[in-house]
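Suppose you are handed a protein chain with no further information: no name, no annotation, nothing but its sequence. What can you learn? This example shows the usual starting point.
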Amino acid sequence: TDLGSRFTLDRKFSKPKRRLILKYNINHQETGSNGVLYSRYHFNIPALPDSIVDQTRETQSIQTAHSFTGTYVEPLTKKIRAELVYAFNTGNASQKRETFNRISDGTLVPDPRYSNEFDSKRTNNQVSGRFTYETNKVKYSLGTIARRNDALNHNLVTGNDIRQQVDNLLPFASLRYNFSESRQLTLTYNTSSEVPTIQQLQPVPDNTNPNFIQIGNPNLLPTFSNNLGFNYYSYSIISGRSMFAGGEYKLVNNAFSTSTSFDTLGRTLSAPVNVDGNRSGFVYLGGQIRISPNWSFNYNLNMNYFSQANYINQLRNRTTNQVYALNVGLSFDIKKLSGYLEISKDLNYTASTLNSSSRKPYGSNLVKGSASYQFPKGISLESSLAYTNNTRRAQGYNVDYLIWNAAVNKKFFKRENLILGVEATDLLNQNVSINRTVQANVIVDSRTSVIGRYVLLKATYKFDNKKEKTADETDY
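A reasonable first move is to predict its three-dimensional structure. Written in structure tokens, the prediction is:
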């Protein structure tokens, strides 16, 4: 069940650009689920005998959230305006999970170890102020947010309470400069903060994997992020040439991470912790160059970087990942024939300070193209090919595959607003998903089967009020 309401008051005054906006939202959500966990465990350790888990679970969750925002804008001069915003958010949530063990005669017996019930309440008060200077050429803003977060989590089973009260001051600034109507540069700086979740402060017991035990950390602090960004674009209508570039750098202190250790039985113990110095960033450059009225050259270059810290057996570990991606292509539109051809390549470099063997670069190459031809009487034929080559991964994951799709469509009626078509996807039945995940000192290659070859019949009807008059129609 999901219910919600929204109320908005937007008041404009006789003084130009003076404005008052009031918003109130309420949302109520109730969810429930039933599940069964049946597992057989076999351990090669005498201290851990073989066991069977046969459980049923019932979970209920209720959440109610209220939010109010008031915004007042006051023009101080023709070019300067002030903005004051007050926001209040509060929410109550309750969650109950009952776990029952099934014994030999089929009877269900409650298991208090994996049953829990807790209530939580969170309140957020924040006030922000902003000054904005704006002309046709330049616009810049400067402001800050003062915020207080209050959280109370009450475990109804153990009687334990976890309380947190956090104050934040979050400045922000932006600058936009218009060189012309088709060329613009934007610079931004902002800060943000994320508060811990209930699961991080007090995790719900989960025995799905008995070799992986999660532990809560009631001393977890909110994060604090600094973000710098820029964006530039230019476009020439006459030459058809466009260029865009941008980037972002993010530094996070008190970032949420994990501390992993192993007990004498070989089980993994994981707890959330705060770490400083997590950082990430990216830059990109792309655009289009019109070679002729029918041909265009497209290019896109991306570079991404992230560095994250964690702890393994009380030793600090840092994992870094660098990604370089290049995409170039040609697109064309010649009378009734249109399409494109693209070549993409990406390289990934990973490293972990506690695992030298993790320094294994990997990548992938992609060549794809598409063409569409418009026949008489509203008939069109489309076809696309995409060849992927994966390199430098674990054995069995350097998979190459070719995806071939095709479609035939027919338009009907004078306005051609009814389209019937047949689409065939993955005609060669080679569709697969190859993915590599780098986290802490662990590299995981995964291969997932995707829905393969299939044929789809489509019917599309376009509703358009802008009807063009035919020769026999007359206006009245």
